[in-house]
Amino acid sequence: MENENRKQRGKIIKSVVLPLTDNQINLPHDYSELIINLKNKILEERLKVTLSANASMIILYWEIGYEILKRQQNESWGAKVIDRLSFDLKKSFPEMSGFSPRNLKYMRKFAEAYQDKAIVQRTVAQIPWRTNITLLDKLKSLELRLWYANKTIENGFGKTMLEFQIESKLHKRQGAVVNNFANVIPPLDSDFTSQIFKDPYVFDFLGTAEPRKEAELEQKLIDHIQKFLIELGQGFAFVGRQVHIELGDSDFYIDLLFYHLQLRCYVVIELKAGDFQPEYISKLNMYQNIVNDSLRHSDDKPSIGLLLVKSKNKTLVEYSLNGFSNPISVANWKNELNNSLPEDLKSSLPSIEEIEKELHGKN
User: Fold this and answer.
1) Please, which residues bridge with residue 270 across strands?
2) Cβ atoms 198, 173 nearer than 8 A
3) Taken in order 116, 119, 120, 124, is the CA torsion positive or negative?
4) Is the domain of 195 the same as that of 279?
5) How many angstroms separate the CA atoms of 28 and 155, rounded?
6) Same domain, 100 and 182
7) Cα–Cα distance between 305 and 286 in angstroms, integer?
């Protein structure tokens, strides 16, 4: 008898639901029409392709968000209508997720951010929904959202990597490297080549302790070679470190050697733990000449040099590059994200001393 009562209580508990009733909320007059239209839209998409297909799901989310946005703008819908809409959609499609009030609000924000459906289909529908939410939360302008969406597609950024690239202002770093490409590479190729390189490179995986010697910096980069390759960007293939070069009676060693699959050339990287010095260019140029003679295949383009320094004077670099026929670029490296903040923003932040003084003053 007791077991039977437990079974009955279990059945009663399972049958209890707490919907938002019509008398709890003042529903708009066309709400019934909306819920019918949305149900038909969802059913139509499910017949066309399963919602596991990302692009189809993103388009569906945009259409739901667009319907909500249109009615909120025209009929002043309140937040409670979204709560009711969430309940009705969950009830109609219990096997599907994504219809929470919070997600419906993101759908509305998504439709508001991308009011042209063609843009959605062409770009942001190609990336996961969680990644789209990151773009909505982290960026304000349509231009930047589309720029990072395209970079996500090109490089396969996950959500965490995308957040890092946004915080490190990749759009300002990409193509900002000081170089002589325009003087030594054909015009059709020089702009594309410039976009491959950045300034600064952010090696946040090195930790807060700055390497004081080139060998230490090189070792740390190799220890984190996967993260290093991600920061370099798509297309870089690691060839070797301390690549031995014998020239006459002298031995030389290239710090890091890469091959770029799109540029179809070797990339010679020289690491410096300190500030830029003009003589670094001459040494890097020599390494490139040797790579071009000894390693370059007949189908390869001339090698590109990348000098990574802790800091540099742009004018000094430009004068130092003048006269060299090999394509060479010079960029800073930084081991902390906050070091990549613009100077005008840095000056507005309180110093450690100011923070400590403020804290002691309050105690």
Assistant:
1) 307
2) yes
3) negative
4) yes
5) 45
6) no
7) 10
- pLDDT at position 34, please? 80
Same-domain check for residues 334 and 190:
yes
DSSP string, 206-223: G-SSPP-SHHHHHHHHHH
CA distance 345 to 167: 14
Q: Which domain holds residue 12?
A: 2-126
SS3 203: coil
- For 257, the enclosing helix (H) or strand (E) is strand 250-260
Q: What is the pLDDT of residue 210?
A: 73
Q: Characterise 319 by phi-psi region: left (phi > 0), alpha (psi -120 to 50), beta (else).
A: alpha
Give domain status of residue 361, yes or no. no
Contacts of 111 (CB under 8 A, 6+ apart): 62, 63, 65, 66, 68, 69
- Rounded to 10°, the helix 142-155/159-167 angle is 130
Global pTM reads 0.73
Q: Is residue 177 domain-shared with residue 284, that is, in the same domain?
A: yes
Averaged pLDDT in 10-residue chunks for the chain of 363 residues: 47 41 62 79 65 79 92 76 90 88 94 94 92 96 96 89 93 94 91 94 83 86 92 93 87 93 95 95 95 92 96 95 96 75 44 47 47
